[in-house]
Design a protein that fits this description.
Number of strands: 5
Oligomer: single chain
Radius of gyration: 19 Å
Number of helices: 5
């Protein structure tokens, strides 16, 4: 609703009342900060040789980072996009949730800056934003002296994004989509991330991009709230 701060209307005020009514009826919800490490199915991730395409790709690790101490943490990221979800501008919406072990520590829900003509384009823009958030988080954790176990596991429910990110021979013609594609693929080649397909019903980021019915929203919220 923040995009209507300049010229709010009565309907926007009713929506604000609706939001506060929801918060009032769910005032006992708490974030689940679970420190245990998740179980990862390694068979879901496809490993490829990216040497011919990104021969010098490597994750930038700060040279002045302190010595890692303690147990290593596993980072996971759920990403989704609502294609043309804004009925006024037809811009898509990005939803991202980042987990440190089983604890949700960062989330992102925002309208994209460009109008995408396809679901594939909006999903790749969301994936590019996710890479930027992941790299920022990994840098911060290393500067805190927190050891990170392997690449960040990215889960996406779009088959085309997963295929283009796991097959080195795939190409894109549209320039801005190709830029997002290479940004994501280079992070895969550098070992910063790895991607796997996630069903829409279990993609937690789905609730940050769509208006869900009560039971579906409650089911997804149960994975991060109690």
């Amino acid at each position: 609703m923040s995009k209507y701060l300049v010229q709010p209307r009565r309907g926007h005020l009713n929506e604000i009342f609706h939001l506060f009514a929801y918060l009032k009826s769910h005032d006992r919800s708490r974030l689940v900060l679970e420190s245990s490490r998740p179980r990862i199915d390694e068979t879901r991730f496809i490993k490829q040789d990216w040497t011919d395409f990104y021969c010098d790709a490597q994750e930038p690790i700060p040279s002045n980072a302190p010595e890692p101490r303690g147990k290593p943490v596993t980072l996971s990221c759920f990403v989704d996009a609502n294609h043309a979800g804004d009925k006024v501008t037809r811009r898509s919406h990005t939803g991202i949730i980042l987990f440190c072990n089983r604890a949700p520590i960062m989330w992102y829900s925002k309208r994209q800056n460009t109008v995408e003509t396809s679901t594939f384009g909006s999903e790749f823009v969301a994936a590019r934003i996710a890479v930027e958030l992941i790299e920022s988080l990994r840098y911060k954790l290393r500067m805190f002296g927190v050891p990170i176990d392997g690449p960040t596991n990215v889960y996406c429910d779009n088959d085309s994004v997963v295929n283009n990110s796991t097959k080195p021979e795939s190409t894109l013609k549209k320039k801005h989509n190709a830029i997002a594609n290479h940004r994501f693929r280079e992070a895969v080649a550098a070992g910063t991330i790895r991607i796997a397909w996630e069903p829409t019903d279990t993609n937690i980021a789905y609730m940050l991009t769509k208006c869900l019915a009560g039971p579906a929203l409650a089911e997804m919220c149960a994975r991060v709230l109690w």
